[in-house]
Design a protein that fits this description.
CATH class: Alpha Beta
Oligomer: single chain
Radius of gyration: 14 Å
Structural class: alpha+beta
CATH superfamily: Gcn5-related N-acetyltransferase (GNAT)
Number of domains: 1
Shape: globular
CATH topology: Aminopeptidase
Helix content: 25-40%
Strand order of the largest sheet: 1-2-3-4-5
Domain N-acetyltransferase: 3-119
InterPro entries: Acyl_CoA_acyltransferase (IPR016181), GNAT_dom (IPR000182)
Organism: Aeribacillus alveayuensis
Keywords: Acyltransferase, Transferase
Order of helices and strands: EHHEEEHEH
Number of helices: 4
Protein name: Riboflavin biosynthesis RibT protein
Distance between the termini: 23 Å
Largest sheet: 5 strands, mixed
């Protein structure tokens, strides 16, 4: 289940985001969290099962488009379809908008859409 980021989840969110290659540097990671906390059109969501095991961050570009900037699942929970579930949950939240991915997660995003089209 996707839940909205709150300041109380900052350490968990930073830990999950740090698994992404672009967020290895602490200053960059702090800047990313600050962006999600301060920019109204940027939203960070956490994936919660028993524990919080994933994170997905989006930017509402305009009234038609949402861009996914970050998507990460705790390494011990990967290859179980959680990333795909997170994408589907984001698509449900923004069902009236086109969902696009930035270059960092585009290949994963495309793979999920391709698998969906084949089923």
């Amino acid at each position: 289940m996707l839940i909205r980021y709150k300041k109380a989840f900052e350490k968990i969110a930073m830990g999950l985001l740090s698994f992404m290659p672009s967020e290895k540097d602490l200053k960059q990671l702090q800047q990313t969290i600050q962006t999600y906390e301060t920019k109204e059109n940027w939203q960070l969501f956490l994936w919660k099962e028993e524990d919080i095991i994933g994170v997905v961050g989006v930017e509402v570009i305009d009234d038609r488009t949402v861009e996914i900037h970050h998507l990460c699942v705790n390494p011990s929970h990967r290859y179980q379809g959680i990333g795909k579930q997170m994408l589907n949950a984001v698509r449900e939240i923004y069902k009236d908008k086109e969902i696009v991915a930035n270059e960092m997660i585009e290949s994963f995003f495309t793979k999920c859409l391709t698998e969906e089209a084949e089923n």
